[in-house]
Glycosyltransferase (Tunturiibacter lichenicola), 242 residues
Amino acid sequence: MKDATLASVCALAVMAKAPRPGKVKTRLAPPLTLEQSAAINTCFLKDTTANIAALQPKGHSAGVISYTPIGDEALFDGLLPPEFSLIPQRGDSFGERLLASAEDLLACGFGAVCLIDSDSPTVPAAAFSQAVEALLQSGDRIVLGPSNDGGYYLIGLKQPHPRPFTNITWSTSVVYEETVAAVCAAGIELVELPMWYDVDDGATLEILRAELLDGTRPSFATLKGYAAEHSRKFLLDLETQP
C-alpha cells in the first residue's frame, strides 16, 4: 500500500551485496586479499550511506539499501545510518534486479527512486542533490550518472520504465551508451550527472588512493569528490602496515 507522505521524497537506494569475504569486490584481489576486499567494500558502503544520510535533513530524500542475498541481513548491522531501511533484491539478471528495486520502492509511494552503485565512495554530494532535484520536478524523466568505464553509478526514475534495463550488455564498456539509447528510444527526457568512477580493480583503486591520500582529483572530474573518511582510513592504514 502506498504511503502518500512519500510522494515528495526520492529514495536513494544503494545496490549492495552483503560484505562477505570472497563474495564482494573479488577483482580487487590482488592487489588486496579477499578479506581486505570485503573490508574496503564495507568502507565504501559506510561512506556512500553517510554521504546520502547528510542529504536527508533537507526532507526530500530517504536512504535505502537494496541488498542481496536474502538471509545475510545481519551483515549490515552497525554499518548503516539508523534512518536507512533494508529491502531485498529480487530477480535473476542484474537488469531485472534494478528494475524490481525501482518497482518495489515506487510501489511504496516514493515519488522517485535513484539506484546507486556501492563501488563509488567519493561521488560528490552535489551529484546526488542534482539527481533528487531533477526527479522531484514535474514531468517524467530519467537521470543517469556516467562512470568513466562506460557504465553508470546512478540511475534515477519516476516511473518503472523497463526499457533502460532490457537488452543491456551488463558489465561492459557500452552499458551507459546502450542505456542512453534505450531512454531516447522510449522518448523519455534524460538528465545527465557529472562523470565519476567505480572502484573495481587495481587501476581504479589507485585512482581512489590518489584522490583520498594525495588530493589528486581524477582527470575527468568536474567536481570535488566526497571525503569518504572510512575508505581514506582504510587506505592510509594499508600504506602504513609493515
Remarks:
- The domain at 4-240 is CATH 3.90.550.10 (Spore Coat Polysaccharide Biosynthesis Protein SpsA; Chain A).
- Helices lie at 34-53, 94-107, 125-135, 175-185, 202-213, 229-240.
